[in-house]
Design a protein that fits this description.
About 40% of the residues lie in helices and about 15% in strands. By secondary structure, it is an alpha/beta fold. The structure holds adenosine-5'-triphosphate and magnesium ion (MG).
């Protein structure tokens, strides 16, 4: 059975796409593993980072998308899914930049959130891991991802309100566990983009006081090479100046993989 992992937090900019993308590279490096990425974010950044690309005459990237779009997973009718093959070895169900069809999913009836799980149930059997990059708001898409998942990973950034943000996403996860998806397992919270400031240390202590059981052991500090690797769509361990970032990221990815089994 495929492990279907959502990278979820209704807060924006916490590292969902970064960790999802690096996890995809990490797993796909193992040629024995079949990996599928589903880009549930209208921004489509994960799709452009993974898809085959070439340069136009002006040196700009041109992305070569093919196969099923994520928006189609929210349809009720029969769907023959075709995933795109990515150069780094994984498959992708993609979202073109600012896909209006995926944005419109939020206007559809609530039951729409159950459709991706129905469509993916059969298709996911072709894979060992399915990684879902979730959007930064609570709506049909995020719920749709969580209903379809076996596991959820929640990246967070520390701030004065770290604990509030954590409560919101944990409430969402528990809501889905109690209703549409009793199998959903919380892998844990990944503390990301941390620095040594007093406010981060204080927020960290607050988190350990309030939700110690759900925090992953490893965490990722503020590491500019990780930002570079993500924007370029490459593994952070492929950069020759990102050793510390690579070590931290790989420790988190290995911990997630171990917990998921
Ligand atoms: N540990 C880190 N060190 C430095 N930069 C980071 C780190 N983690 C993430 N970033 C950068 O922070 C920005 C937000 O990260 P990312 O896009 O992964 O967040 P997100 O949760 O997917 O955002 P959104 O909610 O918009 O989808 C990106 O520019 C990313 O490269
Ligand atoms: Mg994102």
């Amino acid at each position: 059975m495929a492990k279907i992992l959502s990278f979820a937090n209704q807060k924006g900019g916490v590292g969902k796409s970064t960790i999802c993308l690096q996890m995809a590279f990490y797993l796909a490096e193992n040629k024995d593993l079949r990996v599928l990425v589903v880009d549930m974010d209208v921004q489509g950044n994960t799709s452009s980072r993974l898809a085959p690309r070439s340069k136009d005459d002006n040196g700009n990237n041109v992305y070569h998308y093919s196969g099923t779009r994520t928006a189609e997973l929210f349809g009720a009718g029969k769907l023959k899914i075709q995933a795109m093959k990515c150069p780094a070895g994984m498959d992708l169900i993609h979202t073109p930049r600012n896909d209006p069809d995926l944005a419109e999913v939020e206007e559809l009836p609530l039951e729409t959130a159950e459709n991706p799980a129905k469509h993916l149930a059969e298709f996911a059997k072709n894979y060992d891991y399915v990684l879902i990059d979730c959007p930064p708001s609570l709506g049909r898409k995020l719920v749709g991802a969580l209903v379809a998942s076996t596991h959820v990973v929640c990246p967070i950034k520390l701030s004065g309100f770290a604990v509030d943000g954590v409560e919101d996403i944990l409430t969402t996860v528990i809501g889905v566990q109690q209703t549409a998806n009793k199998q959903l397992e919380l892998v844990g919270i990944v503390i990301n983009d941390m620095d040594r400031s007093q406010s981060h240390e204080k927020a960290l202590k607050q988190l350990y006081d309030s939700v110690p059981d759900v925090l992953l052991e490893n965490r990722i500090m503020h590491r500019p090479p990780l930002d570079t690797a993500t924007s370029e769509g490459v593994p952070v361990w492929s950069l020759n100046y990102g050793h510390v970032a690579a070590r931290e990221v790989k420790a988190v990815l290995a911990e997630i993989q171990k917990k998921v089994g």
